[in-house]
Design a protein that fits this description.
The chain is mainly alpha-helical. It contains eleven helices and two strands. The protein has a two-stranded antiparallel sheet with strand order 1-2. A hairpin with a 2-residue loop joins β1 and β2.
């Protein structure tokens, strides 16, 4: 029992150390990070919300009301996956990853700490989009627990995927290619800017493979105050666990 307690305390301390390091780096960049996170959603809201979609209705909602939950889903994906870039900078340039490997911090604690850091960055992006929606005069059900459950699961999936990807790539250039070939297409096709059910049936089937499609659906349901759908919750939960386990395996192999 004491051994289990000692292991739990060690795990918690290691995870917290990794998380705190990432948060201190984030804090040192201060308002620059906050402003950079606000640029993309602001442009999308102006260009698509007030420009292209100004007189467009999606069901019973305006296009702006449709767009904002999509931007929340896309922002949480981008920011949580972005932790992969921080990890690779530490690996390839600062050589800090080798210090982690030599320290008494376990692989599992390392993965938990990095995933928590990715999820925290995603949370900041959500707050920015909610503040922007207020400026654009859009009020949705932002206090709905389903809305936040979708954010939690989405950021968990992509933060875990980011740790796995960071261990697999061999250079910073490979990391950029991964972002361009996987994350960017998903950002535009995962139900963020247009309703998936308006696409041809074969396209809809393909888009169901993307985790962001289910995240957009769940977050939008919460933002609209609609009833909970279990299917996207189960899909995101299973994907999150799978990617987390793969991330842990990748870190273990990197140590070897």
């Amino acid at each position: 029992m004491k051994l289990l307690e000692k292991y739990s305390i060690s795990m918690l301390a290691g995870s917290w150390a990794i998380f705190l390091r990432e948060m201190l780096i984030l804090g040192s960049r201060g308002k620059k990070v906050f402003i950079s996170m606000a640029v993309s959603p602001s442009l999308y809201l102006v260009a698509f919300g007030l420009g292209v979609g100004r007189h467009v209705q999606v069901g019973s909602h305006s296009y702006l009301e449709f767009l904002i939950p999509g931007l929340v889903a896309m922002g949480t994906m981008n920011q949580s996956f972005g932790i992969a870039g921080e990890i690779n900078i530490a690996r390839f340039y600062w050589k800090i990853f080798e210090e982690f490997q030599a320290s008494p911090i376990s692989d599992l604690a390392y993965v938990i700490g990095e995933v928590m850091a990715g999820m925290a960055k995603a949370l900041i992006s959500v707050i920015i989009v909610i503040l922007l929606s207020g400026l654009f005069g859009v009020q949705l059900h932002f206090l709905n627990p389903v809305f936040w459950l979708g954010i939690f699961l989405n950021s968990f999936v992509f933060a875990s995927m980011a740790v796995m990807a960071a261990m697999l790539v061999k250079s910073h250039a490979d990391q950029a290619m991964l972002f361009n070939f996987i994350i960017t297409p998903m950002a535009f096709l995962g139900g963020t800017f247009f309703p998936v059910d308006k696409m041809p049936s074969w396209v809809q089937m393909l888009l169901q493979v993307l985790p962001l499609t289910h995240a957009s659906r769940l977050i939008r349901n919460g933002a609209y105050g609609q009833p909970v759908e279990l299917f996207p919750i189960l899909v995101l939960l299973v994907l999150g666990i799978v990617f987390f386990l793969l991330a842990h395996r990748s870190v273990c192999q990197a140590r070897d």
